[in-house]
Amino acid sequence: ERDPIERVRKLILAHDIASATELK
Q1: Using CA atoms, how far apart are residues 13 and 20, in angstroms rounded to an integer?
Q2: Each residue of 1-24: pLDDT tens digit?
Q3: What's the angle, vertex CA 1, arms to CA 8 and CA 4, rounded to 5?
Q4: Quick check: helix, strand or coil at residue 5?
Q5: For the purposes of burial, counting CB atoms within 10 Å of the CB of 1, is it exposed (0-12), middle (13-18) or buried (19 or more)?
Q6: pLDDT of residue 9
Q7: What's the distance, Cα to Cα, between the start and end of the chain in Å?
Q8: How far apart are CA 23 and CA 4, in angstroms?
Q9: How far, in Å, are 11, 12, 15 from residue 7 at the CA level?
């Protein structure tokens, strides 16, 4: 089974990328 923390980190990473794209 996958580590739940890995899923959270991916969600945060995707959110950070989306936020960075919005700022530009």
Answers
A1: 11
A2: 789 999 999 999 999 999 999 987
A3: 15
A4: helix
A5: exposed
A6: 98
A7: 37
A8: 29
A9: 6, 9, 12
**Distance from C-alpha of 24 to C-alpha of 4, rounded to nearest angstrom:** 31
Coil/strand/helix, residue 17: helix
pLDDT attached to residue 16? 97
Two tokens, residue 6: 């890995």
| Residue type, position 9, single letter | R
The pLDDT of residue 6 is 97
Which two tokens mark 14?
């995707």
Length of the chain in terms of residues written? 24
- Which residue do the tokens 């580590």 mark? 3
